[in-house]
Prior knowledge:
The complex is a heterodimer.
Chain A: H1 16-46, H2 56-59, H3 62-87, H4 91-121, H5 130-163, H6 167-200
Helix pairs in contact in A: 1-5, 1-6, 3-4, 3-6, 4-5, 5-6
Chain B: H1 10-31, H2 37-59, H3 74-96, H4 112-124
Helix pairs in contact in B: 1-2
Amino acid sequence: MAAEELKTGPLEYRTQEGRMTILGFWIFLGAEVVLFATLFATYAVLFGRTADAPSPMELFEPGTVLVMTFLLLTSSFTCGLAVHEMRRGNKKGLTLWMAVTLALGLGFLGFEIYEFVHYVHEGASLPSSAYWSSFFVLAGTHGLHVTLGIGWATLLLIQISRRGLTNVTSRKFFIISLYWHFLDVIWIFIFTCVYMIGMVI
Amino acid sequence: MAKTDKRVPMNHVIGFVLSLVMTLVAAWAVIGSNLSTTWVIIFIMILALLQAGVQLFMFMHITEAESKNGHVPWNMMFHGFALAAILVAGSLFTMSFGFDHGEHGNHGGEGEQHEQMDSEEHSSH
């Protein structure tokens, strides 16, 4: 495989192994689409079945949700900037923008935890109704992905600070950028299908 | 071209501004507009699909000649999205179609008789 190594182009695409690993990660993302689709389908079917718990209309706050959305959208943007710096060969720029990305991700998580605690205090928790079960599982699975992504990216930043930008570390960083943007794609649909539609129906 | 010399990647900036604008427009449609519920839902779903497109094409390098376009398994991504659509639409169709659980949530799935009674009630109002 090393024999096929290209001399130009982004580091992560230079070896066959790098290109295949990125291809494999896209297949994983395709599977993630289906995973979240099952959770969205469950949520849609159980919509309105709140039993004695408060309705989403009473609990959802547009302010909090918009702040969370802007935090995640901005983090997706700064993650893109980090990849851009990586392709310019600027390790410092990559580290800086990825640190901003992770800080924004942590801010998002903080708001989500606050939101969940608030809902539980208002009487809407995982076991209180079919609707709230599906809500917490859907939003919680996304939050878990964000948490994992933050841990993964932190470890990768440590590795990049030790080994520098090589074919391998570039490929790893490119893949986590795909993961992070993908989480934003999922959040757009949670924002729209859960929060926005929950506020109009 | 391994290293781009552009300091600011313009397509990322444009994508970022577009996604912020679309989020705000969606929030306005829900909170501030006088559109009917159906139209609000159609409108914000279209915005969500457009925003997902912004992420995929402007941030995720889904089309990129440097990998000889060999890094994205298009058939599998299409398969994933098609399955997602079938799962959500199919579940809603089989579980909720023609079943008004908003006002009559206690009827459970007891079938046509109840629904018929419900519709008679409605028409007599």
